[in-house]
Amino acid sequence: MTSDLISPKPAGTDATKPDATRADSLTHTPAEDGSKPGRTGNAVSRKGEALIRVNHLTLDFPIFHGGARSLKKTLFRRARAPIAKTRAARTGGEVEIDPNDTGVVRVRALVDVSFTIRPGERVGLIGHNGAGKSTLLRALGGIYEAVPGMVTVKGSVETLIDTNSGMNRELTGRENIQLQARHKGLRTAQLRQLEKDVEAFAQLGEFLDLPVRLYSSGMAIRLGFALATAIAPNILLMDEWFMAGDAKFQDKAKDRLSAVVEGADILVITSHALNVLETWCTRIIWLESGRIRMDGPTTAVLDAYRAEMETS
């Protein structure tokens, strides 16, 4: 999505009014033993508690910038029909005029998506650019809002989606580590352990005590990756950009990430690297224009996906 799109709006709500249900839009249920999510090391709440359930999830992005006027005229001329539905499989979700919002233009990023992921499953999301993979990850992570009841997540969640996720660019790397620790509810001893772990892995040297806004993209990836993988979650949500970085970093990252993946109850990863998905995933969900095209065992879905790519 571009910077012209504001926060996504769940289907069926008023795009012109702020949502008042943020706290209830995504259900994150803590462990029954009272433990806090996101402990350092291998301290994870009991296995088998994690669960992801998505029930008819539809997610819209309303467009309010000036350029939407000309787009609106085009849509009206097409009798309020979605733009070039025959091309949707290549260009992302449907763009249309919301009939419930007095002509507001919207991008429908996810449409009637439903599935359940249980402990032990390793799920890969595939599809063309704009198919809704990253949008779905953000919805599962609570970054994008959903209508209450559409998305239920049980267990501690760690998202490896954005290098700057949860970080204040005006603070130093070390201060951001402390900020994350407080957010996770870590005790002083755990904070020190987290700080040592991140410092040793990221190898930022004196830059760890400089503001993050001064970091290169590679340095930001190192810090973000080290922070995200230092916490052992029940559920790990990961976008493929975490595979980026120089060759030396990738070698270090693979071993560290493999340990986190093995320790998580549930993994959901989006990637265009099908060989990575074949190695890590037990199940693949193929998205096309915001809808589920196919959901099943890794080999069966990837074979169908490759066949589609070869003939297109």
TrEMBL record:
InterPro entries: AAA+_ATPase (IPR003593), ABC_transporter-like_ATP-bd (IPR003439), ABC_transpr_TagH-like (IPR015860), Bact_Polysacc_Export_ATP-bd (IPR050683), P-loop_NTPase (IPR027417). GO terms for cellular component: membrane. It holds the Pfam family ABC_tran. The keyword Nucleotide-binding applies. Residues 95-311 form the ABC transporter domain. Keywords: ATP-binding, Nucleotide-binding, Transport. It comes from the Bacteria. GO terms for molecular function: ABC-type transporter activity; ATP binding; ATP hydrolysis activity. Residues 1-44 are annotated as: Disordered. Belongs to the ABC transporter superfamily. This is Sugar ABC transporter ATP-binding protein. The gene is rfbA_1.
